[in-house]
Amino acid sequence: MYLYAIMKIDSPNATLVVADFYHSWLTGLVLSLITHKGNEIAAKFIFKLFRYQHHKNFLPGLEKLNLTDLPDAVAAAQYHYFSNQLGGVKVEYLKVSDKKAWIRYPPPRWIWAGTAICAIPGIVNEQMMRGWHAHNGVSLENPRLGFVCTKTTVGGQPGLEGYYLEYDKILTEDERLRFSSDESCPYIDPQTLPVLDQASWPEIRRSKAYRNYAMEYIRNALPIFIELLGEKEALRLGELCALQIGMQCYDNVVRGAGLGGDDEEKFMQLLEFFFSGSGDQWSRNKTSICVQTPTRISKNLDMSYTLKRLLNAPLEGLLAAHNRFLKLKFYSDNTFSVVKR
Prior knowledge:
Layout: H1 12-37, H2 39-64, H3 72-86, E1 92-97, E2 100-105, H4 122-131, H5 136-139, E3 145-151, E4 160-166, E5 177-179, H6 203-229, H7 231-257, H8 264-278, E6 282-284, E7 288-291, H9 305-322, E8 326-330, E9 335-340
Helix pairs in contact: 1-2, 1-6, 1-7, 1-8, 2-4, 2-6, 6-7, 7-9
């Protein structure tokens, strides 16, 4: 019998901690592929992920952000500006004309967090732009719209930057993304940047948008990871990555939760904090916790055995760092307890 009613707690702090956790997991997946499978597989993964995200979010996002009446180059740049801003990404925007608009991502680069930037090959970074930026014109049914990349942080330049340009000709697929390192984005006065309406976007809504941004990337990344590697290898490498992320992020989660101690009850409280930050509903008794399904991270996923294991592994990593003499015992897909090894 569960002693507590179903709980769902809105906490900006928990939400931001969970967002950082999933953000780290995404970066870790890419680094795992680069390290264990090579640049080509990692580049395919990034292309597939960003193309999927593009198809899922770009046109609906234009509607949601009220950008559909803008010229295509301006709309594309403003979409990246506002959507990335909501996702916690440093970003700048500058309109030159109806046919040209800059978008700039100053350091630190969000997706290549921390020291990870040093391990990202140019080909992997490029596929992010091929997957999304180069396809905006296609989705807008404007075959003359392309993206020109002028700088990249992975190349040692001060930010990822480029501009959307509506050409006077129809572009081939290869022409939709062009590189022009001799050009530089003009100075952008931060005071001139568009801002989100604070009344429409209070702190809790912005923190949820950041969390959802990071979680959606993982939700869509894991099936692609499995598709590229196959079930067996995806489980081996993906579980290793997820365990590592759980262990490495433990201190940040504990600090955010304001918890101390390493016993079973403290970890159950840590899970309460984590699931609250994830936007999930849960109930628990003294020894076990039950999360309502589908969990936010598993929503709309075809839950194979491998995918279930990969989604559980970060929690096991958290527990390994909390107390290496404890383990998670699963009674069902959504009910588990903490027990001694």
